[in-house]
Amino acid sequence: MSEFKQLAEEILQSIWKNSPHAATFAGIHEHDNKLDNVNRDFLVDVNKEHRDFLHRLRALDESTLSREEHIDWQLLKNFLESNIRDFEELRYWQKNAAEYANLCVDALHILFLREFAPIQERTAAILSRMKQIPRFLQDSKRNLEGAPYIFTKLAIEITEEGQNFLKTITAKLSTMVPELASDLEKASREAAAAIDAYGDFLKNELLPKSTGDYAIGSDHFNFKLRKDHMLPYTAEEILEYGYDIRRLTERNLNEIAQKIDTKRTWIEIVEEIKNQHPQASELLATYKKEMERARKFVQDNDLVNIPRNEELDVISTPEFYRPVLPYAAYMNPAPFEKQQKGYFFVTPVDEDVSNEKQEEILRGHPLYGIPGTALHEGYPGHHLQLVHANQQKSKLRRILNTTVFIEGWALYCEEMMYEAGFYSDPRSRLLQLKDQLWRACRVIIDVRLHTKKMKYDEAVDFLIDCAKLQKVHAQKEVTRYTFTPTQPMSYLIGKRQILELKTEYQNRAGAKFNLKEFHDRLLVFGSIPICLIRESLGL
Q1: Burial of 353 (0-12, 13-18, 19+ CB in 10 A)
Q2: Calpha distance 357→520 (Å, rounded)
Q3: Which Pfam families match (predicted)?
């Protein structure tokens, strides 16, 4: 094993050890019985370790690295540089109480959902982690200072949902593994009390002092563009592109609307399309059917290779996730799990709410929009791409990724599948373009929000006015944007980069260009920055 590979393996083992939750999520199960240590002194030591790793990485002789090793070296160096800057300067570990609240739930949920071991073994790990929640939250409280108001407010909401989650998962596991029922109930009560105390701390102590700024500023934003995504653009160039695509998409929406009904605007037509939706009892079956149709279409039209070991299970959203997932969501297979099984959750309509509320929820599942969701989340979108990424021989490339590739690929697929004929009805095309307009708005808000040129309320109003989102959804969107700088812009910018790469590849191939070959070669590298794929392809 080369010196670089030895160092890379040492760093990976350190990542798993220092974050058991990250290890479990990746499919590494040596630390399943542990909850992350967020003690301040421990986190400072981890950052020192990252600095040492970075020093050793930079000291390596680059000329001795193979092409593939050099790509991994760049990924690992950027990862460490970004983590160090996040810890020392952006300091989310001190500002974002929501991260701590969310980890408590996710660390248990991932063990429950993924069937990598017998339920008895997974329940024992859940029980162990549950017992550690009081210590975890106590350490979290000691870390928090300088928090933005919006972060603390979100954390309060998550703690309230966390209580429901604890009750539900404890009841389920007590039935499934009765020999641990007594221990589960005791640990659950103690964890619930700790979450209550954490919520009281957030409301009564942290929230009144939460006057920090969520915007990271131009310097940090541009740093993330260079290091996290290896993009050749500045924030200003990305912003300009967002405005360009907004204008282009609005023109396209108006043109499609004219083909559907010359007397109505695209906005009016979209509102009518929403009235055409599955019945509540048919919701899950409709998504399953469209997911199967998308997979078959990819196969029949030879668009991209589908690995043999993949599986996508379309299921009802677990009860404890329904408050935060009102419609649908996708969970990818773990990078190191043998079983490459993803989950697509569809939240059933609550029969106890009013008929008006049920209709409002169902309007969020328009029949002409479900094909786009199926291809974006399933085939050939997120699920298929991430399964390919998980086939990587390089361990680093299974976990070090950029959302520019992941989200860019899924958005690229929406257009590619339209061109291939997956959906020909103009109403489906209208909804696809509406979603593209939303992604253009994300670019604009992402840049302006974090370069301090747009405030939270202005961003919400912009989404309502431009993308036609309802206020409650616009608020949730912008809240997410505040603590995920550069993620919202990644959809549109990623699609742009893939299209540019496709053009270069096609120009070189000439008459021999084959779309499936391009897709297969593109996906073989993992979810890494496009510039590194370009380098590997020799373009």
Answers
A1: exposed
A2: 44
A3: DUF885
> Which residue is listed with tokens 């596991």?
173
Sheet with 328-331: list strands edge to edge. 310-316, 340-346, 328-331
CA dist 192 and 194 (Å) reads: 5
The CA–CA distances, whole Å, from 130 to 105, 106, 125, 126, 157 equal: 10, 11, 8, 6, 20
Cβ atoms of 72 and 396 closer than 8 Å = yes
pLDDT in tens, 345-368: 999 998 888 999 899 999 999 999
Query: How far from the centroid of its chain's Cα atoms is residue 214's Cα?
Result: 20
CA 330, 336, 337, 338: dihedral to nearest 10 degrees?
A: 130
Domain boundaries, the chain: 3-209, 227-537
The two three-digit tokens of residue 145, written as one number: 């200072």
Give the span between the Cα atoms of 373 and 414, in whole angstroms. 9
- CA–CA gap between residue 491 and residue 397 (Å, rounded): 20
Contacts of 456 (CB under 8 A, 6+ apart): 150, 449, 478, 482
In what helix (H) or strand (E) does residue 494 lie, and over which residues does it extend? helix 490-509
Sorting pLDDT into bands at 50, 70 and 90, what band is 231? very high
Q: Which residues pair with 169 in a beta bridge?
A: none
**Model confidence over 32-87: pLDDT tens digits?**
999 999 999 999 999 999 999 999 999 999 999 999 999 999 999 999 999 999 99
